[in-house]
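Final report, closing paragraph on structural work. Over the funding period we assembled a curated collection of sequence-structure pairs, and we close with a single example.
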Amino acid sequence: MECTVDGLKKVRDNLDEEIVLRITKLDSKPGSVAGKICVTDGNEVMEAYASFRMANAISSWAIREKSLIKLIDYAFCEIDNKQVTHKERLIEYSPGKFVFSFDVVDIESSEIRVVSFGVVAKSLHSDIIQDKVYIFSGSGGIQPSKSQYTPFKSKWEILASKNMVYNIQPDDVGFPKIVLDRKTILEVSEMEPDTFVDVVGVVTLVGLTNVTCKDSGTLIKRRTLCLGDESGRSIDVCLWDSKAEEEGSKIYEKFERGEKQFLCVKGGKISEYNGRSISVIGASTVLLDVDLEIVASVRAWYSVTLDSTSFIHVTGSSGSNLAVRTTTISEMMGLNLKVMESSDTYRITANIRDIRIDNFSYPACTRVVNGRQCGKKVSSAGEDVWFCISCDSEIQEVDHKYALHVCIEDSSQYVWAIAFQEAARELVGLPAQDFASMRDENYDVFSAHLDAVRSKVYTLKVRCKLESYQDSEKMKFYIVGLDV
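Its predicted structure, as stored:
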């Protein structure tokens, strides 16, 4: 699309028709009663103060210099195509209240985030498809971007309104698949915590998914992998929530097959846990073996240095579900008692000496909040009715989850440990509900199943942590999975 011939003359003549111009300079702030702009039709330049309505329309689309704009009834709308590079999930932050955001990029690699609320959020979440190209038009608003949630440099973000119009366009290979401000892992190790960072590297380790408890008490899934690059450093990358299951499962399956993978993370957040690590959160984008020049460069480097590469790990430990080393129970207890608040994970070869069968599971809330199961323990509120304190609601159906207490023993010592949902299911081989039904309905079969579990020798991943309760300290042990 080109500028309208004699477009500025038509603007001065106040002609009632569509006029296309190009912005050469923009100085408009949200909330201002006017905005200063410079536009051209290719032959002449006009500098003027736009009215409040016009300034709002310009600001609402964060139009950059050299953008083409369409002037209709004294309002500006951006007409450049945009490709959706990242789509977050729909979040219900309060009963009946929703928020949804997605990131877009133009053909010149300029990025901005679009945020929506309420019915607009639900509609956009249903319609918008990641990696597709759209033309966005219509009215909206603009607000300062929230740096703690925005994984790229942008002072503003678009606030979508119900009047926003978006039309899907044919795919365009001219759009960048992803815009990266890539840092090496050595550079990441020297950066401040809570900084968003883009990294590319080779996957050297992948852990199993485990469940951890946030400070709020919410259970959330996590998977830890290790990423290395040509700086000679490696770092833990933690995939959280749905990313632990979706992207994480694909990475794990390929790793188990021995396939070498090259991972691109955009908008990972630097954490100072155990030195430095990277958290992949909702705002982050994960691409595996993507066709990018920088990925090809890292792949070429690794293929040459494969036999001589030895990474220096910048994270204190390889994550709670990646075993540090093989040891005995006695050595593990001795080492961790000397390191206060340690939460390392060790590989132990042991058998199951005993299992507590009275309370090995608990009824858990099945209500889905923000796309994931609440999972907190519920109490009976009558016949076929349960009450969840966390959700402050009654439910009719519950999900039984493991909290299995097992006594593990090797040649040096024995210790009691707890295995939660996934780790317990690996040991028992049955869901918690089925195991409980077996105990209640056919104890002979249940007893034989227990004997079979106790008859095997396992290579366990055991996490150790010194916990404080009522001014006393006690070492707790958690089985986070089998090391197969």
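The two ends are 59 Å apart (CA to CA). The longest helix spans residues 242-256. We thank the funder for supporting this effort.
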